[in-house]
Amino acid sequence: MKQLNIIAACSENRVIGRAGRLPWKINEDWNYFIRKTKGGTIIFGRKAFEEFGYPFSGSQTIVLTRNHEWRCKDVIVATSLQDALNRAQELGNEIWIGGGQHVYEETITMADTLYLTVIHAEVEGDVYFPVWDSFFTKTISRHESRNDDFRYTFFVFAK
Ligand SMILES: NC(=O)c1ccc[n+]([C@@H]2O[C@H](COP(=O)([O-])OP(=O)(O)OC[C@H]3O[C@@H](n4cnc5c(N)ncnc54)[C@H](OP(=O)(O)O)[C@@H]3O)[C@@H](O)[C@H]2O)c1
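Above are the sequence and the NAP SMILES. Below is the predicted complex in structure-token form.
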């Protein structure tokens, strides 16, 4: 079985999104996401995927939806989590869970590693990252950074 990674960014109050979008613009975190997932397979929920609406070059995208009619160019569609994980295993690349809330909740117990950018602010939002610290008890690495608006830390956690 390929290693299963979760990658996410959340505020101190665990917000990950607001009205279908990210509530912040942090270029360094976006570039980190692209760099880490390059060459891998990213599994997104349909709503998270529709925020940008196209697959990233350099990685394979699987979108989870229960709508059997849903299609998007260069995207693999999966109608169950098991289907998505099977397709990802077949591709043989590193596997990344890219959100949103529902997909993070469904995968947090089975993931091996968590790449979490914590934004050191209380942010208003309507979707949340699950409580993770009872599952991911080991800190593998941490790197602090900031932009004009936020301080944030890139954490890697393991179980
Ligand atoms: N900060 C971050 O790191 C980050 C990362 C990603 C997303 N986000 C934010 O998260 C928000 C979107 O998250 P969300 O929780 O609303 O939605 P989501 O998890 O992205 O998507 C939910 C949808 O995915 C499909 N789905 C989920 N589990 C499935 C399963 N087991 N089998 C089949 N289909 C399944 C369903 O699609 P259908 O309704 O089509 O059936 C479901 O409605 C946005 O605000 C986005 O900006 C933040």
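The pocket of NAP is lined by residues 8-10, 16-17, 20-22, 45-48, 51, 64-67, 79-81, 98-103, 106, 127 (CB under 6 Å).
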